[in-house]
Amino acid sequence: MSDVAVIGLGAMGTALAEAFLNKGHSVTVWNRSPAKAQVLAAKGAVVAASLEDAVRSSQLIMVCLLVYDTVHEALAAAQEALSGRTLVNLTNGTPEQARAMSDWAVGHGANYIDGGIMAVPPMIGGQHALILYSGSRQAFDTHAGQLDALGTSMYLGEDAGLAPLYDISLLAGMYGLFAGVLQALSLTGAVGIRAGEFMPLLMSWLNAMQGALPKWAERIDSDDHTSAVVSNLGMQADAYVNLIDASTAAGISTELVLPMQDLMRRGVAAGKANADLSSLVGLLQLSKQATRD
Ligand SMILES: NC(=O)c1ccc[n+]([C@@H]2O[C@H](COP(=O)([O-])OP(=O)(O)OC[C@H]3O[C@@H](n4cnc5c(N)ncnc54)[C@H](OP(=O)(O)O)[C@@H]3O)[C@@H](O)[C@H]2O)c1
Fold first, then answer.
1. Where's the 6-phosphogluconate dehydrogenase NADP-binding domain (predicted)?
2. Interval 131-146 mean pLDDT
3. Which of 7, 141, 223, 237 is 20 to 30 A from 52 (CA-CA)?
4. Which residue among 130, 158, 186 closes a domain?
């Protein structure tokens, strides 16, 4: 028996297995393409001959494959072996996929924990690697000591969908930021300003703007988007046109920034011109809006 089995040895699965080994845990590994297991075998991992052997090797089974369909497909071959074990699925997916996977695993007698990895492989094992978990509290408490080998663990609740919900929401914030940065560097780069020259200013501006976010949280939680507004939506919607026009004039695609303009205009049309930008959350929540209407 090993302390933990790691199924899936892509860039992330390999980093997970290495982190367990580095913290002194015994590890059994399995990957569809066996060659990827060799580097871990050299570091002390046991290479299972089959996925079922890997599952039977440990009470704690970590799975990190590409997508959920792959996980279903791969684990189907070993479903009988899951009974009584804890399955921790760190594959990126949606809350709905996580809940369905949880039902499936529990239906086969396993404890289920879903996870979201907020890190890239080189960060795994360090404290800055945040791993979100949700699902069986009892199983999480039992294995928390082992899971801490991967980074900083955060347990979110019994609903297996919570970890992917937090994961996807954090990624949404990240991609929004990245989209804006791409536009900014396209604009400055088009006139020959080097990215390295502009980046410090951009980073400092983005850091300053983060300061507005706690107030947004207050406004959203209290549903009060109009008191003490210093940069109202109407003003921002008018100024935003310049961002579109300047991009177009410079031959820069507006595909990343046009949707924000559409949303701002929708907000103004809905009577939110004097409200803060935070009020746009209500317009994005289409199903909630339909219930209110
Ligand atoms: N890398 C990151 O920065 C990062 C960060 C956070 C989260 N994640 C998530 O972690 C998961 C794994 O990412 P990764 O970077 O390790 O990806 P990867 O390097 O592309 O590895 C994919 C893994 O999935 C396996 N796989 C794919 N299709 C399969 C199938 N039909 N049957 C069995 N195994 C199959 C691959 O096996 P083979 O080796 O045989 O192809 C490999 O082990 C993804 O859900 C990803 O979103 C990754």
1. 3-155
2. 98
3. 141
4. 158
Q: Pick the last residue of a domain from 108, 129, 158.
A: 158
Ligand 1 shell residues, CB under 6 Å:
8-13, 31-33, 36, 64-66, 70, 73-74, 91-92, 117, 120-121
User: 182: buried, middle or exposed (CB in 10 Å: 19+, 13-18, 0-12)?
Assistant: middle
pLDDT, tens digit, for every residue of 26-40? 999 999 999 999 999
Per-residue pLDDT tens for 44-65? 999 999 999 999 999 999 999 9
Terminal alpha carbon distance of the chain: 58
Using the mean position of ligand 1's atoms as its centre, give its distance from the Cα of residue 129 in Å.
Answer: 18
What CATH number does the domain containing 189 carry? 1.10.1040.10
Report the nearest-CA residue for atom 44 of ligand 1: 66
Nearest alpha carbon, ligand 1 atom 4: 120
Residues 148 and 27 in one domain: yes
Strand stretches in 98-243, DSSP E = 111-118, 130-135, 152-155
